[in-house]
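Why do we care about 3D structure at all? Because function follows from shape, and shape follows, mostly, from sequence. That is the central idea of this module. The next example makes it concrete: a single protein chain, its amino acid sequence, and then its structure expressed as tokens.
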Amino acid sequence: MKARTLLTLILTLVFSVSQAQDEPTSAMLFETYEWDFGDIDEADGPVSHTFRFMNISNNPIQIDNISTSCGCTTVQYSVEPVNPGDQGEITVVFDPARAQGHVLREVEVLTRDRRNYADIMITANVNPIPMGLEQLYPHLLAGTVKTNAMRCPFGYVTQGESVTKVVRIANLGDKTVNLDVETTGNRYGMSVQCPPQIAPKEVISIKITYDVPTGKNGFGMARDSVWVIADGAKSEQPIVINALRVEKFSKDENAPKPVMRIEPSYVDFGEQEPGKIYKKTIVIENTGNTDLIFRHVETTDGVAVSIKTGTVIKPGKMHKKTVTVAIANSREPHTVTMGSINLTTNDPTRPFRELRLQVDTK
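And the structure:
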């Protein structure tokens, strides 16, 4: 009882501070939105953490759906309603099997009324079980050449910055293999360096570099692909590369900055008739103290948004903007259609945001 009272007091104080600065975006106020497990060993198996939240609204809420960014992450929670002022718990379990190094997993929480959404996160640094080349490099590229990863995410890359990452490949055969690469070109400032040969049982690095240009064409998500060619045979699947290109921000913490708030950031259209376009409105507000500028706006296929690249939202509630989002529903019955809107802005705290849309056919 004492622990419960203490948690209630802590969450109430946190909410009071956040309410003084801005309105809450969800009825679920979490004690923390991120948990770092630190260094863990793959051999030790799953780890878990319980996220606690308070219902800060005036109505009961009920968790309806929780999705995770990876099958290695599962959740345990109660489907019973949480009354106003009461607390709920979500236990997140992470299985480090076949993971190594720094990992980040997101957990999205949605209530039954589709009005309350929260995004919590776990991170860890996984020490893998020692393995041989076959286990360490499971993905076949071509011939006897394999890789440890088919994706190479760069995260944020600042304009004018040069960032290099490596993809490790291994030759599991008993003969030297001649190497080459094929890429999607220098669309976003990406270049690739690959050694000309790889000896038997050797492990080498393919270096991938982004040199992001300055200016209006240097914003948004960069998507590239690299195919490895081994003794003339091209890999069936490419190594997928991506980077989030953003502007260079001031390191002065006291400098004026915009803060983008989106309500909601997940739009569920529910069950609808097939083969039609459905629209809803969201609200985007700048709660900072200088202009919010949309550097790049991009949508996936079948999705549209009324806000455009170059749009400016001034600080304050009186300047908040109502934005229309739309998604085309599938013509197939009993189908879930997902889409997204990618927004790159000059908000230094979170310069890249993804709005997710979903519609189901009846």
